[in-house]
Amino acid sequence: METYKLSDETRKIKRNTVLHRVIALPGNSFVEAGTQGGWIENESNLLDGGWVADNACVYDNAIVGSGALIKDKARIYDMARVFGECVVSDRARVFGNAALLGFDETDINQTKPIKLCGTAIIHDDYWNESPYYVEGSVWPVNISSRSTLRIGCYDYTLRDWKESYYMKFVDYSDEIVKKVDSSNILSVLQEYIGYFNHACELLGKPELKTNVFNVLCSFAGKGFQLANS
C-alpha cells in the first residue's frame, strides 16, 4: 500500500540536489492523510511504511524503510539505511555506509526502538541499538562507528584519540577557557575524559582508556590554573 506521494514543491540543497516534499496518503501510520512531510530526492529514498517529517531530508542512495521516522532537521544520505522502529530527530545525521536496523516483530532479542537525536552522527557499521550519545556541557559526544568517537567537530578512531590525537584533549583547552568559568575547567576535562573512557568500555577497548592524571598535568602545563590544584 502506498503511504505517501511526492508533491510539486521542491527545494535545492548542496550540490544542487533537488528534493521533493512528501504528502501522506491514507494508510500512513504516522500522520493523517494530506499531511505535508519532509523532503526526499526520489521515491527510492522512502519505502512505504516509513515517514520523513518536518524539514528532515533523505537523499543520494539512502533508504528509509517501513517503521522508521525521520523528523525535525535530521538528514539521511550517501548509502545509509534506516529500517524498522527507528527515530532520527533533531539535527542528527546518518550517512556513509551506516545502517540503523530497528525492532521488528520477528526479532525477539530487541525490544526498544533505536533513537538518534541531538547532533549525533553515524557514518559506518550496522546498529540494532541506540548508539551512545551525550550532549556534554561544552560539546556533543557520540560513538559514530564501531571504532570511532566524535567529540565536538573531531571524529577519530579510539586508537587515534589515544595515540596520535591524545593531545586533542589538551588542545581543546583554549576553547574550554572561552566557554566555561575557569573554576570549572578541571571538571570539564574530567567530564570529557570520562565520556571517552566510557566509549572505550562500550566498544570493547578498555585498554585504550585515557589516564586522567596525565591529561590534566599536560593541560596544566599550558599555564592554566586548575581549580583544587
Summarize the structure.
The protein is α/β, with parallel strands linked by helices and 229 residues long. The protein has five helices and 19 strands.
Name some characteristics of this structure.
single chain, 229 residues, alpha/beta, UDP N-Acetylglucosamine Acyltransferase, domain 1, 19 strands, 28% strand
What would you say this structure looks like, in words?
- The chain is α/β, with parallel strands linked by helices.
- The protein folds into two domains: 1-131, UDP N-Acetylglucosamine Acyltransferase, domain 1 (3 Solenoid), CATH 2.160.10; 157-229, no CATH class.
- It has five helices and 19 strands.
- The chain has a seven-stranded mixed β-sheet with strand order 1-2-3-5-8-11-14, with no helix packed on it. A four-stranded parallel β-sheet has the order 4-7-10-13, with no helix packed on it.
- It is elongated and about 60 Å long.
- Net shape: elongated
Number of domain units: 2
Fraction in beta strands: 25-35%
Calculate the mean pLDDT score and round it: 86
Provide the CATH top-level class of the largest domain: Mainly Beta
How does the helix and strand content classify structurally? Answer: alpha/beta
Radius of gyration: 21 Å
Across the major sheet, the strand order is 1-2-3-5-8-11-14
Gap from first CA to last CA: 66 Å
Poorly predicted runs are: 225-229
| Sheet of most strands | 7 strands, mixed
